[in-house]
Every structure is written in structure tokens, then in C-alpha cells.
Specification:
The protein is an alpha+beta fold. The protein has 2 domains: 2-147, Sandwich (Jelly Rolls); 158-240, Winged helix-like DNA-binding domain superfamily/Winged helix DNA-binding domain (Arc Repressor Mutant, subunit A). Helices cover 47% and strands 24% of the residues. The chain has 9 helices and 12 strands. Strand 11 and strand 12 form a beta hairpin. The structure holds adenosine-3',5'-cyclic-monophosphate (CMP). Adenosine-3',5'-cyclic-monophosphate binds at residues 58, 71, 83-84, 92-96, 103-105, 107, 144, 148. Residues 58, 71, 83-84, 92-96, 103-105, 107, 144, 148 line the site of adenosine-3',5'-cyclic-monophosphate (CMP).
């Protein structure tokens, strides 16, 4: 049997290797990263497991190691509004730790997922001790606020078709990889999820996707969405609601 202490060292090595590719830890030397990795625990969640509920008290900060997590709020009529979907390398759960309030949304896995977790006091100590990590976190939060602003604008001024097109553009921006056919969205989303991102019904999301396919704006390859046009054109189309 391998003694527990060696097992833990092995996990820390593995987490260090992973954290090297995570945006918010860029700029840290390997030995510093190893110290950071020591603070993390690794937890496995099956598909559709709730990591935490909105309005719960929050005690952990999370980094997605593999799999994916959706962040959503429930509207009064019970409909889900998806704020974002996070995949490997993304973090979440920082807000309740920073402002000492309750969770602002619910987090649920979309597939079997491994999360790295950091407890409140270690997170607070880390951001006080390592300003480069704090700055990286602020950069990501600024990007998320920009995207949230764009969503607010879309919800206020666009019809359902425009919102679906915008949600497709957002998926392209966050998960798109160039391919010979166009921008291939690495994340597989269901029509219901697209509808929840766009604040519309599944039927409408399906209809708009079909229209977009007929117009040659998107296609599907092995169940992955491919955006044929560039994102700017797509966003302009969304604005005009065409
Ligand atoms: P927290 O409020 O602790 O728990 C829910 C988490 O969801 C929150 O921290 C953020 O990490 C994340 N979150 C909340 N709102 C948004 C948003 N509009 N866009 C992206 N992520 C969000």
C-alpha cells in the first residue's frame, strides 16, 4: 500500500501540472504553483450534481479540472436562466467569498466533472499574498462583466431570434476553435441550454437554429456547432434581429 503522504504528493504534482495551464495562475513559478496546488482538494461530481444552490452560504472557491458546470438562476415561473457555462481551467464561486454574501446563482455539473476546491481562508490568504493572481482574477471578472453587459443589452433590445444568435456568438467567442469548416464550438450544448442562455423557449431556439442552418450561418459536425461566418457579422445580425 502507498503511504497517504506520498499519495497526496502525487496529487499535488498532478494539480500543479494542471494549474500551469490555468489563466489565473499564469506568471507563477513552478515552485510557487506547487505551494498553491497543496491548498487545493480534488472532488469528483457525477452528471447533474448540484455543487451549490443560489442563496446558500459559500465556503469554497472552485476551478474546473475536467467536465463542465452551468451557472444558472431560476426565474419566478421556474424557468432556468443560464448565466454561463464553465469548462476546464475556468473558476467560479469567488463572489460569495469576496463580498461575504450568499451564492448569487446555482452551480450544477453538466457531465461527470472534477473540481478543484479551495476553502475560504486559503482563498483569502492567497489573494492577499499573491497580487498577480488577484489581478488575473480581476481581469477575468472584467471580461465576464462585459459579457453580462452585452447580454443585458440583448435582453432589453432584441427579439428572441436576436438573443439566440447572440448566445451562439457568445459560445463561439468562449469555446470556438478555428477549423476548415468555420469556428467549431468545443462545448456541446442542448437546444434547451441554448434557450436558457437566450431567455427563450426550446421551440424558439430550435426554430432559430434551423433558420441559421438554412441561411448557411451555422452547421453541425459530429454534434458540434460550427459557426460559418465571423463572430462580428453574427453579432451585427443579432443586433438587427434579421
Ligand atoms: P458565487 O456568487 O459565489 O456563486 C455563484 C457563482 O457564479 C459566482 O460566485 C460567480 O463565480 C458565478 N457567476 C455569477 N454571476 C455570473 C455571471 N453573470 N457570469 C458568469 N459567472 C457568474
Amino acid at each position: 500500500m502507498i503511504p497517504k503522504i506520498f499519495e497526496r504528493e502525487k496529487i499535488t504534482e498532478e494539480i500543479t501540472g494542471f494549474l500551469q495551464q490555468v489563466d489565473i495562475f499564469t506568471g507563477l513559478k513552478k515552485k510557487d504553483l506547487f505551494q498553491v496546488a497543496r491548498l487545493f482538494n480534488q472532488t469528483y461530481y457525477p452528471r447533474q450534481a448540484v455543487v451549490f444552490f443560489q442563496v446558500e452560504k459559500g465556503d469554497h472557491f472552485y476551478v474546473v479540472k475536467s467536465g463542465s458546470v452551468k451557472i444558472f438562476r431560476l426565474a419566478e415561473d421556474g424557468r432556468e436562466v443560464i448565466l454561463d457555462v464553465f469548462t476546464a481551467g475556468d473558476f467560479f464561486g469567488e463572489m460569495a467569498l469576496l463580498d461575504d454574501d450568499t451564492r448569487s446563482a446555482t452551480a450544477q455539473t453538466r457531465e461527470p466533472t472534477i473540481l478543484l476546491t479551495l476553502n475560504r481562508s486559503d482563498f483569502q490568504e492567497l489573494i492577499q499574498r499573491r497580487p498577480e493572481i488577484t489581478l488575473n482574477i480581476i481581469t477575468v471578472l472584467s471580461r465576464r462583466l462585459r459579457q453580462a453587459n452585452a447580454v443585458i443589452e440583448n435582453f432589453a433590445f432584441q427579439d428572441a431570434r436576436g438573443r439566440v444568435i447572440h448566445a451562439v456568438a457568445k459560445l463561439g467567442l468562449n469555446y470556438g476553435k478555428p477549423s476548415p469548416e468555420g469556428l467549431r464550438v468545443g462545448l456541446r450544448v442542448t437546444h434547451q441550454e441554448l434557450a436558457s442562455l437566450a431567455g427563450t423557449s426550446r421551440e424558439t431556439a430550435t426554430r432559430v437554429l434551423l433558420e441559421m442552418q438554412n441561411e448557411g450561418l451555422v452547421s453541425f459536425k459530429l454534434h458540434h456547432l460550427v459557426i460559418r461566418d465571423d463572430l462580428e457579422t453574427l453579432k451585427k445580425l443579432a443586433k438587427r434581429g434579421e
